[in-house]
Design goal:
heterodimer, A: 342 residues, mainly alpha, 13 helices, globular, B: 180 residues, alpha+beta, two-stranded antiparallel sheet, 22% helix
């Protein structure tokens, strides 16, 4: 937070922690209510939760209360420490991800020049948590689910990163704040009215990023690791109560944070056309704008999630290795050539 | 690549369902969201849909028709029907005749905790004493209360819908006795 530079270290840190928690939980709650509860219900011609609060808006509170009441069960043969720590590892990866997000010209958690690289690196930490959960549960469903999740996350990490490279080439920086400024200051054929959101020039990268993101989040159609008809819920099978809730929060918070990263990379992040990108107003307006873009991108994620049936394991791997990665590589080559040509 | 049109079609189907559910109104009011009108479901405890008249909700007993013949209890796959009765003398049909012997029903219980709603008892009853009622709200906090006795089963008779004519071409079946 650039605006807080004159405060003491502990004050800055406290504010960062609080804002970080809010920045993780608010999008997660919004996505679960707006998309998982309501949009999907409308998609199936029903109303969804309507009883808890006006239009069921407090349903999430009820769900959290329900999970907190439940017993924290450990399977008898579980590796207790690994089993207990796994959800926290997954959640830690989410909290580390949110750190790189810029919310305005001066509203950022950390400012560093390897922003997107850091984000993609810490997003892989969740694989370790999932593998820990799968192994520590001492259950066949969990183990198969954990291994499938690992194979899938590793396979889709690659197109995810390669899709980002195109943006990085075009923006000439890996700093997420820099990428926002590059889009805000950009011009389309000499006309700078809308800036230059990279979704236009990097549409292929955007498509690959969204598909790979869907797989990273293990959302349907890429939910082979938690395929409920064969694996109960995969690596989450043996979890109950608070730890299951942590996995649940982790899943949707990561969906929110990944949508935010996609919004920063391809939709111009906190910037809306019409104002100067350095305008002080953006420190307040920016997070709201970013949130609106997150909701839009998450709509796509959940739209796909509740429209398409599940991929088979081999189809899933084939899509990543034989389809997305070549496209992403070609996108990098074309972007690089055009970058030098113009 | 040849899968793309199918994928787009799928997205269109779910997307159009959202639009139809949230904006069901037509004409100038189209932009007013009214999901409670557009949804195909109703909010159950507040709004109740009338079940189809032939729905299998609960089994009602018409006590006067029952002869305690035990056919239903014997055919019941779950053995959830308990019948007790005794023989009693009834006045003769004609003056000077012998008094008739008749089965009198003492106990007729259906344990709905065991019942699997197969309807075999209704089918098998030769005296039209058992009927399906579409009533479905008879859950109980205590499992023992799911044992419905003769009186409770008779109360369900009020909810049995009127005997409906069978469809054309099956007039022969009309001989079946309608509930009284």
């Amino acid at each position: 937070m650039g605006v807080l530079a004159e405060l003491a270290y502990w004050q800055q840190t406290s504010i960062r922690v609080v804002v970080g928690v809010v920045a993780v939980l608010i999008p997660a709650g919004t996505l679960v209510y707006l998309h998982l509860f309501k949009m999907v219900s409308f998609m199936q011609s029903r109303l969804g939760p309507m009883e808890a609060g006006p239009y069921g808006s407090l349903q999430l509170m009820a769900e959290v209360g329900k999970f907190l009441q439940k017993e924290d069960i450990f399977p008898r043969k579980a590796d207790r420490f690994v089993f207990a720590a796994a959800p926290f590892v997954v959640l830690a990866s989410t909290f580390l991800l949110v750190v790189v997000l810029p919310g305005g010209p001066d509203a950022w958690f950390i400012q560093n020049d390897i922003g997107i690289y850091l984000a993609l690196a810490v997003s892989s930490v969740s694989v370790i948590g999932i593998l820990m959960a799968g192994w520590g549960s001492a259950s066949k469903y969990s183990l198969i689910g954990g291994l499938r999740a690992t194979g899938q996350l590793i396979a889709y990490e690659l197109p995810l990163i390669l899709a980002v490279v195109g943006v990085v080439i075009q923006a000439e920086t890996m700093n997420l704040q820099g990428i926002v400024f590059a889009q805000a200051d950009g011009e389309m054929f000499g006309w700078g009215g809308l800036g230059n959101p990279f979704i236009l020039t990097q549409f292929v990268g955007f498509a690959v990023f969204m598909i790979a993101m869907q797989a990273e989040l293990t959302q349907t159609p890429f939910d082979m690791p938690v395929a409920e008809s064969e694996l109960v819920t995969g690596y989450m099978t043996e979890y109950s109560g608070l730890r299951f809730l942590l996995f649940f929060i982790g899943e949707f918070a990561t969906a929110g944070v990944f949508s935010a990263i996609a919004a920063v990379l391809f939709l111009g992040g906190w910037y809306v056309p019409g104002l100067e990108p350095t305008d002080n107003l953006f420190n307040v307006l920016g997070p709201v704008v970013l949130m609106a873009k997150v909701v839009m991108l998450a709509f796509l994620i959940f739209w796909f999630r509740f429209t398409f049936p599940r991929f088979r394991e081999d189809q899933l791997q084939r899509l990543a290795w034989k389809f997305l990665i070549p496209i992403a590589l070609a996108n990098i080559v074309v972007t690089g050539v055009l970058k030098i040509a113009f | 690549m040849k899968l793309v049109p199918g994928l787009v079609k799928g997205l269109r189907v779910t997307g159009m369902t959202i639009v139809r559910t949230v904006f069901p109104k037509r004409g100038i009011k189209t932009l007013i969201p009214a999901p409670s009108l557009g949804a195909a479901t109703v909010q159950y405890p507040h709004v109740k849909e009338a079940p189809p008249t032939r729905a299998r909700g609960v089994i009602a007993l018409h006590v006067e028709n029952c002869t305690a013949c035990m056919l239903c209890a014997r055919e019941c796959p779950d053995w959830c029907i308990y019948i007790e009765g005794h023989k009693e003398k009834a006045p003769p049909r004609r003056a000077g005749g012998k008094p008739r012997q008749r089965n009198k029903l003492d106990r007729f219980d259906i344990d709905y905790a065991l019942c699997m709603f197969c309807g075999i008892c209704v089918e098998v009853c030769p005296f039209e004493a058992l009927f399906w009622s579409p009533e479905y709200e008879f859950s109980e906090p205590r499992i023992a209360d799911l044992l419905h006795d003769q009186d409770r089963l008779s109360e369900w008779m009020e909810t049995v819908p009127d005997f409906e004519d069978y469809e054309a071409g099956s007039e022969a079946k009309k001989l079946k006795v309608p509930p009284t």
